[in-house]
Records
---
Amino acid sequence: MMRNRRDDTTTTLAATPAAANSQPWQLCLYVAGPSDRATRALANLRGCCEQHLAGRYALEVVDVQAFPEVARREQLLALPALVQRGPGRRKCLVGDLSNPEQLLRSLTAEAA
Amino acid sequence: MSYSQPPAAPPLPKLPKAPTGIAGLDEITEGGLPLGRPTLLAGAAGCGKTLLGIEFLVRGVLDYHEPGVLMTFEESADELAANVASLGFDLRGLEANGQLALDHVQVDRAQLAEAGDFDLEGLFIRLGYAIDQVGAKRVVLDTLEALFGGFHNEAVLRSELQRLFRWLKDRGVTTIITAERGEGHLTRQGLEEYVSDCVIVLDNRVVDQVTTRRLRVVKYRGSTHGTNEYPYIITETGISVLPITSLQLDYPVSSEIISSGVAGLDEMFTRRGWYRGSSVLISGTAGTAKTTLAAAFALAACQRGERTLYFAFEESGPQLIRNMRSVGLDLQPVVDSGLLHIEASRPTLNGLERHLVTIHNRLAEFKPSAVVVDPISNLVSVGSLLEVRGMLTRLIDYLKVNNITALFTALVSGRLGQEMTEEGIASLADVWLTVRDLEGVGERNRGLSILKARGMAHSNQVREFLLTDDGVQLLEVVLGAGGIITGTGRQAQRLLEERQAQAHAHELARKERELTRKRLVLEASIANLRTEFESVEEELRQSNREAEAQQHARQGLASGPASLPSTQPLG
């Protein structure tokens, strides 16, 4: 399910991979290995995105355990962490994203 | 509070320790921090927690070849590197050599929101990555508590911290976790609950406008440690904790005797000097030649080829050399040859700790056989009596352990000063000399006496001494009617004795003459008597002769020839 990356090139799980970089919602979910919490977070995120942002988002999932230097660069502490680079300023939401309303509010706060 | 004390049974495996390389700290902790375990370093702002942590890492790399990881939560790595560069710690250089990994963790609540269940795996991964990057044996987390500012969910945070400390132990890295001092607790966030192996508290106190930093090992599981508060300072080369001392009185001692540098003084000890490695105190009021005695000792030590360190708290080096030359003690050659090092500074320039740290550092650098501190009493001006006493105790301990002969001078002025020496270090001094003014009518003379000399008998006399062109000269004891006589009294006594001797000689001569006279009288009398006797004898003979003549005449008339003896009686 999850895919790793070697560098900054984006691997997307978006509906339209070809247009990943041009999507308004640039999302990246950082997880630590295949854990229940990670799976839950991803499921919650995808559910929300498909429901509200279908076709307008690019999602990348990174296993930080495999690429620890990313954790340093991205200043990650708590995992899972959803980093949203757009729209608006960079922000970070940590946890398993189990509250859909909060997730949606966070995703759409700047875009409204 | 439970202090771990070792059981009495001797052959126990010692807790493995990681030496910090920080001067003094390893002595207090008896070897360093618990190896492979976390140590909590708590302290208020400005105590030098971060610095101590960084020094632990840098010394680890440089002195023990143990790479380290520095994870900072407050200052950025660049800021830290710049801050400690002035202490000669080149963090960037070590990082470039692959001996040190730096990671600055930014905790920014503004960028961070919590949505559901999370853990701090990211921190673990970063730390693990940094450790693997350099093969770290040492880790410093500075200041972990900053995490509490980043997350709302304290329960998660606490369980994660607990996990972190266990994880660090499992990784076997020796870790220092710094934390802010809290009200009523050792740390603001109660981190001491999680770190049970070793807790060190730093403290920053201002007493009488003098700041003193102190360090205390609150807890050290599985090991003994010094339990006192130890002052420490931040020097040009990092943190220095005092004391650098032995906590036991079990050092080896020397039986070798060395000279005091004053021949006459040596004679006052039955063994002609004092033991090597002993501590000598010379106390006295102003102008009693304490410095001269100290310089004589230093010069003698140098002339034996021993390295000597002279701490002058009153005079500059050149001034001391000039002044001592005037009494025939030429220190310049031994200074030039490098045997004597004069370290001059004003006591008020620094706090007490800094002075003692300076002394310790110089001792470590110079490795002298003899040390002079002239005078220790000046140190009182920068510290309380109690502090000075504590410091000197430690200094003397250190000197003794290293078999360094130490000579201290102490200025005594009135009652207070006397107490200082008595309570201060007199009990620590092995030999205590006092020099004093022997003030008489219109003059002062210098007297020297031995108050104590451990391990040997000594003279109990107060000896007068002079500062001559050839150094210190002890004068022979002159005993007068009222005790020992000095100065002009000494001259007077000598004149008196001369007069007495003259009078005695006169008397003798007079008696001689008297005798001669008597003999003459006697002889005259004898002659008189003899003359008298002779005249009586003469008279008697005369009478006899006359009587005989008469008898002859009578016999010639009666019987003719005189054939009969004259004595024949007439039948």
---
Amino acid sequence: MIPGTFSYHRPASVAEAINLLSTFGEEARPLAGGHSLIPMMKLRLATPGHLIDLHGVAGLTGIRRDDDKIVIGAMTTQQQLLASNEIRTALPILQEAAALIADPQVRYRGTLGGNVANGDPGNDMPALMLTLGATYRLEGPNGARNVAAGEFYQGAYFTALEPGEILTSITIPAPAAGHGYAYEKLKRKVGDYATAAAAVVLTMADGKVASCAIGLTNLHETPLLATDAANVVISTGLDAATLKQAAAAAEAIMSPAADARGPVEYRKHVGGVMVMRALQRAAGRAR
Amino acid sequence: MNDVTPTREQRTAALEGLGCKRKRVEDIRFTQGKGNYVDDVTLPGMLHGDFVRSPHAHARVKSINSEEAMKVPGVLAVITAETLKTVNLAWMPTLAGDVQMVLADGKVLFQNQEVAFVVATDRYAADDGVSKVVVEYEPLPPLIDPFKSMAPDAPVLREDLAGKTSGAHGPRKHHNHIFEWTVGDKELTDAAFKKADVTIKELISYHRTHPSPLETCQCVCSFDKVKAELTIWGTFQAPHVIRTVVSLIAKLPEQKIHVISPDIGGGFGNKVGAYPGYICAAVASIVTGKPVKWVEDRIENLTATSFARDYHMTTEIAATKDGRVMGLRVHVLADHGAFDACADPSKWPAGFFNIVTGSYDFPVAHLTVDGVYTNKAPGGVAYRCSFRVTEAAYCIERAMDILAQKLGMDPAELRLKNFIRREQFPYHSALGWEYDSGDYHAAMRKMMEVTDYAALRKEQASRRAAFKRGETREIMGLGVSFFTEIVGAGPSKNCDILGIAMFDSCEIRMHPTGAGIARMGTKSQGQGHETTWAQIIASEIGIPADNIMVEEGNTDTAPYGLGTYGSRSTPVAGAAIAMAARKIKAKAQMIAAYKLEVHEDDLEWDIDGFRVKGLPEKFMSMKDICWAAYNSVPPGMEPGLEAVSYYDPPNMTYPFGAYLCVMDIDVDTGVYKIRRFYALDDCGTRINPMIIEGQVHGGLTEAFAIAMGQEIRYDDGGNVVTGSFMDFFMPTAVETPHWETDFTVTPSPHHPIGAKGVGESPNVGGVPAFSNAVNDAFSFLGSTHIQMPHDYWRNWQAAKNLGAVAA
């Protein structure tokens, strides 16, 4: 539980951070909240020679409204999401999910950018980003580019980030007023990753589902958008049979690993249960 | 008398003696971050050690190359078994009469076994060195399933035992067999089963888990080459035993070994035994002449130092058709891992598992225990219980529920029908114990009344009907547990550790101003001894508890004691305190008689001093007697006021309790909710009700963890899959249920103040309450026994197996 030797850098600007990442290449890792990287370093499963701490970089935190979009700086902490009126009004599902991430100590340190950029299938925010149709701004030696969250995740810990690039902000289109939402997360205890979790954002019209997006956490090597499951519920009143069909459609794309949280069969089953419960709770909230 | 003269009640209250909810005096330093733990010990020039550990469960060690490690700046030495052989310490004796490798000698026998010890100028360099040691292994087939350990073709684990057909506890049947232990009357038990109307038989397993105290195992060893003295600061629950063990195995004179247990952050049995880290740090200090610190990390703690449980208990009860028990038969397959490092009194290879007849009047019983080796970490410690008592309580409490189910009786009614009755105490059990005192019926009935047990059963019946009608997906379980513990090891006639009788001790020294110090052979790890020991003295000799300082943990100043574990402190050391205090009081009485110019027999004790019978104004306070002890003792009497007592208990004590757990389980996810948990404990005389309540809360929380998910699990290759707090269930305040506590008081007749010990009761009684609740919830769907731990996915699996969840 003692990390190996590394050099510590604290750049003051994005340009400086990118320069350091480019200079040290594979040897360097950016450091945000550190809740994934530092334990990996203590176990010596990660042995970066250079840590590029982003806490001193200007302009990476903050939440602002940009017309019908919400722009969140990558170094914005989970606690800042929970405290933000803007998020409470426009994206309440982020607060529901943030409150289910570990404990207050972790949330004061853990960042949204770190959570979505690390590519850890256990992290909660990536599935929400898929569900909400978020876009990530990546800045690197060759300039800046925008990548849809749906295009970002390639495998466990493999993402669209190119060498030298940093995820600097996340842009989320504000869901329709009166939308319903829910994040259902089954976990063994505080601080655990999800055994299975489902995010739902939907709108209702005349008692029927008008639009719906469903995201899944920790049920595959990447976060999943359960498109077929969402299609199943459109124009329905979410009766029991429809819910079961939606769960089955979602389970069809899940491929979780067996671990101490349970065997594959269980994790898929409760993944389906989370989808059903999230749909019901979201529909109950829609206006 | 004027109005400022305190009343008798005020004088009694001022002492803060027995029965007072005195605040814990040690918390003043703990809550301010001013405790002093082993890792706070920093000495000039101190070095740091860390282990190279085996990634394999079973492998031959072909070579160890430390060339690159020695090049790491700061690395001073890499110690291997070959190094230790030069001082004859490659192997060490265990408390269970086996031997254990200190460092891998030729092969490794469990994952994370200690292979080499790297010593460096700081902890970072030590770990850098560890990563550079190259060990070449030849993997061997691992033996993980204890049920396969004695197969004819099972791999040979312990090559050092080749040809040894008997061990410390008798004959060995197989190369992976450690011992067979038999208690009870086989013929009479067999006969009872032949006559029985009803019998049950079930394999009841208690999975492997770990005490996992907040502070891991650690030490600082400092050898003074000039004085040839070794000082060890360590997280030791039994510092004197460590001193004697070190003297015996390191061949150092015992007076030249100083063992200091400073503040300890929880022990729960994990810190009783001796570990390779201690030996390696001591050898490294002797070799380098510098202090060496070894501090275990969490993964090392969970995977290498002393697991608990891992008992597989085939249990049979014979009964009449109206529910009277006639006989008990239990066979235990005990998985001890690679070495038998069980921390039991020496003559007890399965601890006090023969308390397995529990609270019930079994006319006959027969018990056999087979201990076996597997490729798992050694241990078998008493995790917050007396030796193997929690396994025994789980076994009988689960079995009684299974019998009740078979008979169609209520589990509480079955227990009431079979309890040992109050008038049967002292009660001689079929497996050889003499229970000191108890009133089981009163405790059980109180539990049933307070919880309105009958109403809960009615609610359960209607919920079951609703479930069957498809109106709910939740099932409700009631977990009844009635346990009898056996604590306070123990009487010298049957308890020793390495030949040392399991007495305990207290030395009290009163100062002239009416204050004093008590030094103990025990060692608190959070139990609050500094608070409670002073309370016993306060009530015995009338000096306020605040004026008594309690000191433990330094073998140079404390009288020899066997330490704190197995709830033995109050039954044994608590008695020693009272006996030492009574010696003080006896001398005080002689001084008071002299000063008051009466005969000793004319004095009577009155709260905080002696009074002349019939002359209430002639009174001498204990405070004044202390002063007199230093200037005007009777002619011929030595001055001073101090006493030592070494207490050899005449019997164990037998705390008991009635617990009830009310649980709801969602069959679709396996998620459970503990709706209510009621714990009635009878620990005899209650010294500090607040500390008792705290002990019960802590023990129940550990019981909850164990029953509902906490385990050390190995995969088929012998890899630990629950080696960190991510997967090893350590509940937080969020997961922990609310606890309702209650009590009855049945004093121990043989203990000087009637106290029995309580620290471990809630773990012993709690685990069966939780497990019985889960099993009770599922029983109406047709199951008789579901193995622990009852985590979410296993609950779902049970529901699915019983057809309650569609595939």
